Protein: ABC transporter ATP-binding protein
Organism: Winogradskyella flava
Amino acid sequence: MLVIKNASFSYTSNLVLKDISFNISTGANLAIIGESGSGKSTLLKLIYGEYDLDQGEIFWKDTQILGPKHNLVVGYDFMKYVSQEFDLMPYISVEENIGKHLSRFYPEEKAQRTTELLKVVELETFSKTKVKNLSGGQKQRVAIARALAKQPEILLLDEPFSHIDNFKKQSLRRSVFKHLKEQNITCVVASHDKNDVLGFADQMIVLHDKRIIAKDTPQNLYKHPKLPLVASFFEEFSIIDDQIYYAHQLKIVERSDLKAIVKQCYFNGNSWLIEAKYNSDFIFIEHKDSLEIASEIYLKIER
Ligand code: ADP
Ligand code: MG
């Protein structure tokens, strides 16, 4: 189990994270979400031991994670970290990068492992390509494969699919997270993309204003968001009588007490997102068709 206990941290005089506590069971996938600047990357770096905590402690099983004040070399063998700036070796090939830290005394094993990981990140056809000739998204995939090469117990991923195009993203997510589950690798993923989280995380924590403001399974946080910030991570929503409703919970009906005026319609693939004015507030409704601007609509709430 990974245990973070009352951790506080500041780069300069202002605290970035205050009194952060949570546990992750071995083999679980935990997502850290929050707006840009909320401290997601900092929290990953603290778990990695890149900085010294101002207060609190972090343990992996019986080992305390210590920062540079206590550790000459940052990091631990059982943990790998893929940062937002994946630093690869540009002048050697994809397969050489992935196998960089694997023992050359077991060439067969090394080759087999590299092939397996090329498959996980769907880069089989690029094995001989020099990293400098890859796109940002391809480099990101090499960085993930390299982090997995020596079978870490914990993998820390900072916005791991941010550079990968939409054509590839979903299948790559499934492939990487499936591999982690199969190998029982504990995983902490920082993200602001719900698609990195919904189908994969066992638990998620939401960072805001230095603290954890919500922690639960993705299912529970989606169903009962409690705070607008949590709801906004998932979908468009409206606040009516102090309650949060997702756009698909508002249905257009013939007549009701809830009258709104259509302001804007946005095509959203399977449906349209209707922006409407209700009293003095803007609200969002999911609807199968677009609607005439300035028309009156009546709404029913589906809880
Ligand atoms: P996130 O990953 O959620 O976008 P970060 O952890 O990168 O957030 O940053 C959290 C806060 O810490 C921000 O206010 C950021 O400006 C600040 N910060 C990040 N890195 C440093 C640094 N090396 N020195 C000083 N301040 C930093
Ligand atoms: Mg970040």
About this structure: The pocket of adenosine-5'-diphosphate (ligand 1) is lined by residues 11, 16, 34, 36-42 (CB under 6 Å).
